[in-house]
Amino acid sequence: MVHPQQPGVPHPSEGMAQPAPMVPWHKRRWFGIAVAVVAVGVIALAGLGIYGILGYSLGPAALILALGTAVLPVPILLAFFWWLDRYEPEPRRYLAFAFAWGACVATFAALIINSFGGRVITGAGGSESTTAVLVAPPTEEFFKAVPLFILLGLALTGRRQINGVVDGIVYAGMSAVGFAFTENVLYFGSAYIGDEEKNMPGGITALIVTFVLRGVFSPFAHPLFTAMTGVGVGLAVRSRRTWLKIVFPIGGLALAVLLHGTWNLLASSQDFGVILTGYTLLMLPILIAMITLAIVLRGREAKVVGRVLPVYVEAGWFTPQEIAALATMQTRRAGRQWARGIAGSIGAKAMSDYQFAATKLAIARDALARGITNREFADEERHLLATVDARRQYILQHARPGTAMPWAPNPAAYPPGHGGNYVSGSGNYPGPAYGSPPNYGGQIYNPTYYGGGHHPGYQPHHGPETQR
């Protein structure tokens, strides 16, 4: 049975106490644990390999100094991608995986392949510049993009973590920042110890010059290159056509390689005027365009909530006030602060889970409306609605009567057909589709407090965690 006002949306009165669906093998707990163990093992082995090589070639003192210098730009770059990802935040373990993969596996593989390719090219009479332009870009971009391709594969099998272009850019950026960190360790350490064979002096001065060029002048280079692949993967996830799911990632990777090769070609000229011209006329405009694109697309994600979730208002899962409170970063932040004030850090975490589940629900239903096949949407929808309800109940159970929401209701914004008043609290409120206010522990809360959409199938402290 579905609510007659909105076909396809479950009604809260139905409850959620249903038999657990059959879980596909790729979603079972043992499979997730096995994948995590393999991933950690591969990253650990690659990390030992790359840093063992760096320690042997640079020496302990230079390695420690290079590590301390290379870490300086990392917090700024990570902060940018976390800021970009704050509306529908990705799971931290996936972000950590992308960063660790870039820092360990991608750099280790690139070092081996680039070294081998360099020997082949120089043995055939070529130069190191040829290796930098023809070998390094495809090798490095492919291995930096592996986490994106893994997540794309998971999305196609139902474990959707990438929902669009913004997510693709975020994961690409995390992998690229990790890669740039380890690569900078190599460059900074090499600058410090110098190279007698090439008559290159070492020392602190050489280290500072290299840091300015790589850590100040172009810290965004690797994230910008790999973001092209991220855009391609994000478009593939949002595409309905099978051939586009293949073409977009390959096209994004090709653009990443082209941009990376162009930058290496400029750098290999060793002419500061050429590098500055290329930086000003090519790299900087592309960087600005990419950042603008990411911010615009993130703004569209916010609009999805206001456009899609009203269908759940009709079914009784949300109140109009809740939709308004989810639509901007300011109101979402105010909601977390309010929940922290009444239930501490656990309340803030419950509000964060509530907001995340509601946003993911909107994005998933929007994708379905666009014709993007998701055979497991019904199970995902039930899970997200259960999470929304359980987190709301937890917060409301800790709310004190008279604790107002941090934003005022706007009756003019409510859809028609929601008439009636609540008898408790202050002021009037258009009643939701389920008719009567929720009752928690004998206390009826006015929806000018945070809440609404209660169904009796879950208890406040035992709701499922949001899948991330």
Task: Describe, in plain words, how this protein is organized in 3D.
The protein is mostly helical and 468 residues long. Helices cover 67% and strands 1% of the residues. The chain contains 14 helices and 2 strands. It has helices spanning 29-58, 60-70, 74-84, 92-123, 128-156, 165-193, 204-217, 221-237, 242-268, 272-308, 310-315, 320-326, 329-369, 377-398, and strands at 439-440, 443-444. The chain has a two-stranded antiparallel sheet. The longest helix has 41 residues, at 329-369. Mean pLDDT is 78; it is low at 1-7 and 407-468.
Please render the helix and strand layout as text.
Layout: H1 29-58, H2 60-70, H3 74-84, H4 92-123, H5 128-156, H6 165-193, H7 204-217, H8 221-237, H9 242-268, H10 272-308, H11 310-315, H12 320-326, H13 329-369, H14 377-398, E1 439-440, E2 443-444
Antiparallel strand pairs: 1-2
Brief descriptors of the model:
single chain, 468 residues, mainly alpha, two-stranded antiparallel ribbon, 67% helix, elongated, disordered N terminus, disordered C terminus
Summarize the structure.
The protein is mainly alpha-helical and 468 residues long. The protein has helices spanning 29-58, 60-70, 74-84, 92-123, 128-156, 165-193, 204-217, 221-237, 242-268, 272-308, 310-315, 320-326, 329-369, 377-398, and strands at residues 439-440, 443-444.
Radius of gyration: 26 Å
Taken as a percent bin, the fraction of beta residues is under 5%
Helix and strand element order: HHHHHHHHHHHHHHEE
Number of strands: 2
Shape: elongated
Round the mean pLDDT to the nearest integer and report it.
78
Number of helices: 14
Structural class: mainly alpha
Distance between the termini: 29 Å
The stretches of 5 or more residues where confidence is low (pLDDT under 50) are 1-7, 407-468
Q: How would you write the strand order of the largest sheet?
A: 1-2
Largest sheet: 2 strands, antiparallel
Please bin the fraction of helical residues. Answer: 55-70%
